[in-house]
Write a structure and sequence with these properties.
Blueprint: H1 7-20, H2 28-35, H3 39-51, E1 55-57, E2 63-65, H4 68-71, H5 76-95, E3 98-105, E4 108-115, E5 131-133, H6 138-146, E6 156-160, E7 167-173, E8 182-189, H7 197-212
Antiparallel strand pairs: 1-2, 3-4, 3-8, 4-5, 6-7, 7-8
Helix pairs in contact: 2-3, 5-7
Length: 213
C-alpha cells in the first residue's frame, strides 16, 4: 500500500473479488483467512458493502456478491438481457410459453428478461421487473435447490399455482456463472407441465450460462 491508497477500500474490493470467484459464497471466517485480517474487520467490511447492496448474506451466514454490483453500470442489466434473449426466444417459441431470466435480489427473485411466444392464442402475462420471494415459484425454488447441489449438476424445478392461480412453472438454475445467481424458466397456463419442458428448460439455462461467461 502507498500513501495515496486506502487500505479499507483495498480490502473491500478484495472482498468483492473473492466473492465473485465463488459460486457458493464465503463465511466470515473464510474471508478473514483469505484476507489475513481479523473477523471484526471482515464484519465491518461486509456491513458496509451490504448497505450498498454490493454484498448479501444468506440465512446460513455466507456472503455473496449482491445485485448492487450490476447496478454500478447502467449497461450491465441490458447486456445480461441481451446475452440471454436468443436462448429465451428459442425456448418461448419451442414450448409455446412465456420464458424468463430471473436473478437473485436479496431474498427475492427478480425477473430481468421476459420473452412471450408469438404463435400461441394465449399465454401467461409476465413482465421484467416482477419480483417474488425465492421460496415461491419455480424460478426462485430452482435457485434455492442449486445452492444444495454439487457444482456442475443441473436439474429442473416444477411448481403449480404458487404465484398465479392456474399457472405452472418450470425453471433451471444458471450454473458456473461467476457472480451471477439466477435461473431460466417458463410459465404456462396448465395443470401439469409436459415431460419435455423440464429438460428443455435445463438446456436453455445452459445456453444462457454459456452466453454470460
Amino acid at each position: 500500500m502507498t500513501a495515496e491508497t486506502s487500505q479499507t477500500l483495498d480490502r473491500g474490493l478484495r472482498v468483492l473479488k473473492l466473492l465473485a470467484d465463488t459460486d457458493h459464497g464465503l463465511t466470515v471466517t473464510e474471508l478473514s483467512n483469505k484476507l489475513g485480517v481479523n473477523r471484526t474487520v471482515v464484519y465491518r467490511l461486509l456491513a458496509t458493502l451490504e448497505q450498498h447492496a454490493l454484498v448479501r448474506r444468506d440465512l446460513g451466514g455466507r456472503a455473496r456478491v449482491g445485485l448492487g454490483v450490476l447496478r454500478l453500470g447502467r449497461q450491465v442489466h441490458p447486456l445480461v438481457r441481451e446475452a440471454a434473449l436468443p436462448a429465451l426466444r428459442s425456448l418461448a417459441e419451442d414450448i409455446g410459453a412465456t420464458a424468463h431470466l430471473t436473478l437473485v435480489d436479496g431474498s427475492d427473485a427478480l425477473a430481468v428478461a421476459v420473452v412471450e411466444p408469438t404463435w400461441t392464442d394465449y399465454h401467461v402475462a409476465y413482465r421484467a421487473g416482477f419480483r417474488h420471494p425465492l421460496d415461491r415459484g419455480a424460478a426462485g425454488r430452482a435457485i434455492l435447490a442449486a445452492r444444495q447441489k454439487p457444482v456442475g449438476e443441473t436439474a429442473f424445478t416444477l411448481t403449480h399455482g404458487e404465484l398465479e392461480a392456474g399457472a405452472s412453472g418450470a425453471a433451471a438454475a444458471l450454473m458456473g456463472v461467476t457472480g451471477v445467481e439466477g435461473s431460466v424458466g417458463v410459465v404456462m397456463l396448465t395443470d401439469s407441465i409436459p415431460e419435455r419442458v423440464g429438460p428443455r428448460v435445463v438446456d436453455a439455462a445452459r445456453e444462457v450460462a454459456d452466453a454470460l461467461r
